[in-house]
Structures are given as structure tokens and as C-alpha cells.
Amino acid sequence: MRSSTRTAALVTGAVVVLLAPVAALRAWSEPADPRISVGAPAPATLLPGDVREPAGRMIANAVWTGLVSYDPGTGAPGNAAAASITSPDRRVWTVRLRPGATFQDGSPVTSRSFTGAWTAVLREGWAGARLFTEVAHVKGARRGAETVAGLKVEDEQTFEVTLDRPLSGFPALLGDPAFFPLPDSVLESRDWAAYGRLPVGNGPFRVASRSSREIVLQRRSGRGRSVVVKAMPDARVQYNAAAAGDLDVATRVPPDRHESMDADFGGRHLAVPGRDVTYLAFPAWEERLASPTVRSALSMAIDRSAVIEGALGHQYSPADSLIAPGIRPGHREGQCRLCVHDSKAAAAALADAGGLSGPLNVWYEANRGDDAWVKAVTDQLREELKLDARPHPVADLRKAGDDHEVDGPFVIHTTAAYPAPVAALAPLLDAGTGFDDAYTTDLVADAERAAAPEEGVIPARLAESAMLRDMPALPLWSAHDHLVWSERVRGVTAGAFTGLRLDRLTVRK
């Protein structure tokens, strides 16, 4: 008996010894938290009509399904919640919804879910209101409006939208969170604060919980892993956590790690082209800056890459076009040859134009974060062209332009509202430059009212070529996003108009 007992004990001990490394391996390969983790700054709100930051857009695109969605590879819009979006004249649009769609609380998604939400964006004056008033030009749309004449419900699955002028890109615009639907419960209660903390959408994820530290998103289907968006505003903390395997996806990269991403992560990093561009524009009323040759000289004197690697911390890409690189339809590279730094050509061009005397003030909005790079640019203009270039911050740049106080180049930032070349060009005509060339403005109008979005590409590109010749605004750079991820995660996909696609994330099997 003693021998049998001893043998059993030895066998049991052997099993424990054998199982220990297996358990350790399982603990290493299956972390205590099985959720997919994403680092990002905490969004100010989850109200889709009021989101302002990339993190808010990223989450909104997971919690809601818009009328259209964007292909992350091509940027092209395609119907999602909409069964069809049609118009005989690009001004009056009929939207038909896919039947049977519901919100995550089980309530139906109807025409009023959209028209009521859009009216709320305008009535409450949320960030998305400008898309209705300044981009789509919906009839009767204005901030504070209780009703909007251009929105008409036909039935539970059909509604009509009337614009003040034709816009072929209107369907593409409808993928923005400002156009996402809201359930009847919040449209009736108008308790936006409570809804914004824990919203109910119609998309593939639902917000399971939210705290100051994290937002937990559960897949509505019940299949697949939950995603936790961790509040991590510091790029270095995100990056180090992803490198250590403590975070699955980092949405920010610190400036001094851009050159080492490949060494740190191998192929597990991605640059996502942006949809915004920063320009230096020229006031039409300032005669000494009216010559395209002078403007070209200033453009060639700016070493965009040096500013990006220095003052801008590698977070931008040098501009080679008036159009942001994240706008994929009709994309062309290298359109702005005068954006290439060339000291000798810049000096020769300025000499041919007769020079430029007196102070050259570079005007920009104070307290917007532009101080460092504006100083870098003025330093370059002084060194390259021997100009008396000076940074000139003001509290209200738009008012200074309207009052014709601006006497030098001034900074403008634009963001394309939808993925089409004309969406990047149209804001430049309203940037306060006074530029009103009839040929160019007619081409932009032709692009906006084209019979189909693809037919608007050619007039938009012709307009770009014309603007690059006259140079009412010289493009500097476009922001881009960087993503790095751990060995555990798969399916990292992102686009300029959606950000990181949380619904595509999976883990290694």
C-alpha cells in the first residue's frame, strides 16, 4: 500500500510539473484581458453630430451605420443604411432606407431617425452643422432652426432632401457622423448629455460602458471580441505599450520614433493619408503679392520637409497638390512642382518679379498651435530670399481678412468634407483671398453639379491646375495618422474619412 501510494504521489507530482509550463504558456498567449485594446485620446463627446476629434469619429463609425460608408482602400462611398440615394437634378435627393434595420435598443431605424437627427444637429448648433449650411446647403438649414424646409419625410423608409444648389457629391457626404441617425427616445427627450455618455446607435458595436479611463464596445452580433478604447492621450505611452504587447493598437506615434517604427514593429505600422491641408494664402488686395511669380518664389523657398521634421514633429506629409492625399478618387501625385524646395529657382523667380521690399508679415490665428512652424517658415524666407519676414499672430484672422487688414500671406486650414477633389478646392474659394477667377470658379461649379461624382473629377483637376498657375494659396502640408500594433492583432485598416476601422480588428488564431 505504501508503495502504491508513493507511486500515485509521484505520478500526480509529474502531472503538476508537466502542466505548469502549459499553464504558463496559456497565460502568456492568452492575456488576462481578452479584449482588443486601442489607445486614443478620450473624445469630448460621443454625440455623432458633435464629434470633433479623430477618436470620436473612430468610435462613431463603429457604433453607427450611416447612409453610406467609405471603402478604406479606394475612399469611394457605397450605400450602407441606404438602399438607394437618387436625384434627377443633383438638387432634390430621394433617400430610401434598407428595410428591417433597428437601433441597438430594438427600436426601428426610420426616415425620421435621420431627418430628426439632422434637425437636432442644426437646432443645437453642433460641430456638424456647417456641413448642412456651408457644404450641402440644405434648403432652410441654419443654426438654431427648429424645422428645416429641405427635409421632407415621405414614409417610414423614404425621405427627400432639397438643396439650394446642385451637389453631385451629396451622397458621399452622407457618410460623415453628422448625418448619422438617432432613435426616437432621445429625439423626444432631448437629453443629449445622458445620451452622449452612453449612446445607442445602429452600427456593429454598442457602447457597453464608459468611464474616464476607457470606452468598452461590444459586438452587436455577440460574435467576436469586444474592443476597449483606452484613454491614452500621450503618444509615447501608447507606443511603448504597443511595443510591449500591453496595447493592441496605438493611434499615435511620438515624433522621435518615426524613424524606428520598422525596427520596433516590423511591418506592423501604417501611415494613413489625411483629408486636410494647410496653406499660405495671399490677399488679392495686396498689390505687391499679386504676381504669380512672387508667390511661386515664396513657395519654392519653403523647405516643407525640414519644417515637418522639426517644428511639426513628423506628423505631416509635404504637399505636392492642392488636394489632400487622403482623397483617393481621382488622386494624382506631384501636381505642385512649385512646392519642391529649390533655393536657386526661388531667388531667380523673385529677382525676375522685381523683388519684394518691406516687412513681410505672415498672418495666423493666435492660440491655434501654429506658432512654431510659422516661425520656422519665416526663418526660411529670411534666409533663402533675404526678406524681412515676420510671424504676425492675431486674435481673429477671419475678421482681419474681411476688414482687409491682412497685408501678407496668411494661414488657412481646410478639411475636405467628403472624398472628392472638388471638396478640397471649394473651401479655397471661400478662404478670404478675394480670388474670383471666372474660369476657375466655373470649373469648381461644374465639378459640384456633375451628373455623377466621377464626371466631376476632370473639371476639378482643371480647376486645380488653374489655381496652381495663379497660386492664390500655396499648399504646405497635410496631416496624416500613424498606427502601430502588437503581434496579437490582425485586420488593422484605416481611412482618411473613418479613421481606424474597429469592426475589422481581429486577433491572431
TrEMBL record:
CDD domains associated with the record: PBP2_NikA_DppA_OppA_like
Q: Domain Solute-binding protein family spans what residues?
A: 81-429
**Any Pfam family hit:** SBP_bac_5
Q: Which InterPro entries match?
A: Peptide/Ni-bd (IPR030678), SBP_5 (IPR039424), SBP_5_dom (IPR000914)
Stated name of the protein:
ABC transporter substrate-binding protein
Species of origin? Actinomadura chokoriensis
